[in-house]
Amino acid sequence: MKRVIFTGKGGVGKTTILSNLARLLVRDGCKVLVIDCDPSMNLAMSLGIPMSEIVTLADDKTSLQEQLGVSLEEHHHTSKQECDHHIQEFIMDASDGVKLIVMGTIPFGGAGCICSHISLVKLLVSYLSAGTEEYDFIFIDSQAGVEIFGRGLASEFDDCIVITEPTPKSLEVAKHGSKLSRDLGVRRQIAVINKVENDDDIRFCMQELGGNVDCIISMPFCRDVKEADRCGTALMDYNPKSDALKEFLRIKDCIMER
Ligand SMILES: Nc1ncnc2c1ncn2[C@@H]1O[C@H](COP(=O)(O)OP(=O)(O)OP(=O)(O)O)[C@@H](O)[C@H]1O
Ligand SMILES: [Mg+2]
Is 232 in the pocket of ligand 1 (CB under 6 A)? Predict the structure, then answer.
């Protein structure tokens, strides 16, 4: 099983890229679980699930947290069965058979930070990693910025997909995210330069990113991606023949490399 975190500055395309890759991998026969760790909870929408149908881990945090803790400590068959059963309650069937778990949001102003929600996801990923290999991939969609790395959620993950636009501020966030993921023992840092408009964009990013990441892939600005989003649909449903899909396939191939 490969565990992959997607990170980057706000609006760079984390959710768009993750959701398209997850669907392409499922179409290749892989089992993919995606976990939305952004309190804005956009990932469900990108995967065909309306907001009104979202179930979140935060709805039942304490009880699942206890169960996962006990099961991880005791390796007890019965507690594992109960735990598996409980986790199923939070798994939603998304487009193409992608499995989706949503962490949860901030329910009201002044409700406090999401640290405990992220800790629960960390425990859940540890639990799923320790069990039978039910999934080929676990993808984590994160909130904009680097806070998620402070909670150690991506510890020892296989890949960190650092998405950036060709702008100095976006690149700074990407470099910082890449460094923090390396601190956590994430094995590969893959940069995706998104919304590229010309060769200068690529040159500029290559200069800035060189030495900070293991691999760099570029993705052009694509009208189809934006239009699909505007119509509330995914690129592969909006225009299955879009050239942008070829670009997503290149990123997919890179993630599939062992
Ligand atoms: N290659 C692209 N070409 C054109 N538009 C794109 C491309 N990639 C993403 N977008 C658009 O950029 C916007 C932001 O994308 P998305 O929501 O995936 O970003 P994000 O990084 O997940 O944002 P957030 O930080 O809010 O979670 C969307 O309108 C999306 O359609
Ligand atoms: Mg997003």
Answer: no
